[in-house]
Write a structure and sequence with these properties.
The complex is a heterodimer of chains A (62) and B (314). Chain A has 62 residues and is mostly helical. Chain A contains three helices and no strands. In chain B, 72% of the residues lie in helices and 0% in strands. In chain B, α4 crosses α14, α5 runs parallel beside α9 and α5 runs antiparallel to α11. The chains are: A mainly alpha (62), B mainly alpha (314).
Chain lengths: 62, 314
């Protein structure tokens, strides 16, 4: 776990891609879940942040 | 004997050859690639950028003389605060999840069976692949007949199995059954596609691996979980990616089958988007809707491709 945070601080691709992937998955879940309308409202923001982050961090060093 | 490059060089008219002579390899490469890049920019990138721009405006394509106003994020606020759009997303999620689950399970099972050597193997493959070759409009049309409560074959088969009266239920008209009606038809049509991809995966596994496992006295069950599944997994993931993206955009089959009904129960996002854009003529609103769907599919595809690469590296 600490190596994951170290990789985040050292701007390593793997750890940051993981964060971006989690954000995208969370955003898609929020978009399609049938429980709370507020989650649906903020789903696009979360997906967009995740997607943009994914594009940026995929250029980070391994 | 001259090679191909020499033949091409000798066949080039002298006027063109004289002009090209002073160019570097890089320049010639750019000359060849430039038309493709131009077409890509014109028909892919420009419409995308234009759609993003329109999503911030009140533009309506049927009112070209109206002043186009920049309205910021209002279109996005309307879409993401709308309960009907939310219901549409849920209908899409239901369709997406169940079609993928069923297609992968049935497709893999069929591929596993077809991969066994038996008489008539090729004939069965052709028969199974047949639905995939049909047009979605045709499939939607004839399944509406199969789903007819009075004369439909589907209802008679169900009644034969369950003992229920065939006219007592309507797959397309019933609010509980309509979402499943579209799942069944899409599964019927596209399972062969998943089967073919899985079959390619299964046939790529060398027999020597199974022979080595036999020597180590691995059971069939163990061979299946430690050889077959891991080696077919990249192919399966590819099939899920293709079907996921395709079903997220599903339009023709469902329009032909249910028209989005009963009510809005089977109105998928692409049908809703088409209505906003070309029936209500809210172009700006529809553009924002399209951008939301694009970002969602792009994000999902990104993580999926990354997962696929990781599986392939193993």
């Amino acid at each position: 776990m600490s190596s994951f945070f170290n990789d985040l601080l050292r701007l390593r691709r793997g750890a940051w891609e993981m964060v971006a992937s989690i954000l995208i998955a969370l955003g898609v879940f929020m978009l399609m879940q049938p429980f709370v309308l507020t989650l649906f409202t903020y789903s696009f923001l979360v997906t967009l942040v995740g997607t943009v982050m994914f594009i940026i961090v995929s250029h980070f060093p391994e | 004997m001259d090679n191909v490059a020499d033949k091409v060089a000798s066949a080039t008219p002298p006027s063109i050859a004289h002009r090209v002579k002073g160019l570097s390899d890089r320049a010639i490469a750019w000359i060849f690639v430039a038309p493709t890049i131009f077409i890509l920019l014109a028909i892919n990138i420009f419409p995308l950028i234009w759609t993003v721009y329109l999503s911030f405006t009140n533009y309506a394509v049927n009112r070209p003389n109206r002043e186009v106003k920049f309205i910021g994020l209002r279109n996005y606020e309307r879409i993401l605060g709308d309960a009907d759009t939310w219901a549409t997303m849920q209908a899409t999620a239901h369709f997406l999840i169940w079609t993928i689950v069923l297609q992968v399970l049935i497709g893999f099972t069929l591929a596993y069976l077809i991969n066994k050597k038996f008489k008539g193997n090729d004939l069965w493959t052709t028969i199974i692949v047949f639905p995939m070759m049909l047009s979605p409009a045709v499939v939607g049309n004839f399944w509406t007949f199969l789903y007819q409560p009075q004369i439909g074959l589907f209802n008679y088969v169900i009644s034969f199995v369950t003992g229920a009266d065939p006219s007592s239920f309507s797959m397309i008209g019933d609010i509980a059954l309509a979402p499943w009606a579209i799942v069944i038809v899409d599964t019927w049509m596209w399972t062969p596609f998943v089967m073919l991809i899985c079959l390619a995966g299964l046939r790529s596994i060398p027999d020597s691996i199974y022979e080595a496992a036999e020597c180590d006295r691995a059971s069939k069950w163990r061979q299946f979980w430690t050889i077959t599944i891991p080696m077919v997994l990249p192919f399966l993931m590819l099939a899920v990616l293709f079907r996921g993206i395709e079903n997220f955009k599903m339009f023709d089959l469902v329009v032909q089958l249910t028209g989005g009904g009963p009510g809005n129960l089977t109105t998928l996002t692409s049908i809703d988007l088409k209505r906003e854009a070309f029936e209500k003529w809210r172009t700006g609103f529809a553009s924002a809707y399209a951008v939301i769907l694009f970002v969602t599919v792009f994000g999902l595809a990104s993580i999926y491709v990354k997962a696929l690469n990781r599986v392939k590296q193993r």
